[in-house]
Amino acid sequence: MRQSWLVGVARHSILIAVAVMFLAPFGFVLLTSFMTSEQALTSDWWPSSWHPENFVTIFTQVPMLRYLGNTLMYSVLATLFMLLSSVPAAYALAKLRWRGSNATFVVIICMMMLPPQVVTVPLYLMWADVGLTGTLWPLILPMLAGDAFSIFLLRQFLLTIPADYLDAARIDGCGEWQVLLRVVLPMARPGIAATAIFQFFFTWNDYYGPLLYTSESQEYWTLSLALSQFKHLHHVEWNLVMAATVLVMAPVIIVFFFAQKAFVQGVTLTGVKG
Fold first, then answer.
1. Pick from 82, 119, 114, 112: which is nearest to 212 by CA?
2. Which residues form a coiled coil (predicted)?
3. What span, in angstroms and rounded, lies between the C-alpha atoms of 196 and 200?
């Protein structure tokens, strides 16, 4: 029994080493969150005394519930708006024949390669003209026009759906919207789930966008901006920063844990054909 266990460890030694490399930062953050401010980031990596009250302190020092609500509003609405616009666009690129579809797809690829900082100034001026700067709406409303990466990912997945199912639905008298809603969407659930998870993770962790548009409007801050609240003029309370970081990471980890099957299936099938 012991020999077989050692053989198993030897066979998976590389995977174990990689797993330790990935899990070590999470362990460091979790242990630091239970330390005192004086012990945090010292050579003592194990807490000399445990302080779970750090997780209560962050709610008394910073309005975390408000920032949590802002983050949820940003992530959920942006994800829903992205799906409403990107799914039909991906369907049109993957399953419909129309003049200019290939050129449109090339434009979408180019948009993926365009750094967001290139269009920051003109977009900020545009949203300032309509009076939406200082809120999260400049980050949410553009999702109604689609997201280049999401359209690309969904298109690649929809290409794996056999055209025979769509042709059969058309023969039965279904229009394109009916084909999309009744045939394509049920078959594309893994791809849609993977795309939604990608978008949700991005918006949940987004720092640049909220900093750009809400830096002077604290009531619209997200959790990523809230972490900077524990920095003082001459001191950073790293134990509270780590405690807040644990709470920020927890929802993302929970979502991925329950949706990992659909996520992995969607990402895997996306590259089957295209």
1. 119
2. none
3. 6
Instruction: Please answer whether residues 151 and 120 qualify as being in contact, where contact means their C-beta atoms are separated by less than 8 angstroms.
Output: no
* 141: DSSP letter: G
Residue 274 has pLDDT above 60, yes or no: no
Question: Quick one: DSSP state of residue 184?
Answer: I
- Domains of the chain, residue spans: 64-228
| Contact between 189 and 262 (Cβ < 8 Å) | yes
User: How far is C-alpha 253 from the geometric centre of its chain's CA atoms?
Assistant: 11
Dist CA 140 CA 132 (whole Å):
11
Distance CA 235, CA 168 (A): 67
Could you report the per-residue pLDDT of 111-150, keeping only the tens digit for each?
Answer: 888 888 888 999 999 999 999 999 999 999 999 998 999 9
Q: What pTM was estimated for this model as a whole? A: 0.84
Q: Which CATH number fits domain 64-228: 1.20.58.410, 3.40.50.150, 1.10.3720.10, 2.40.50.140?
A: 1.10.3720.10
The whole-angstrom separation of Cα 219 and Cα 62 is 11
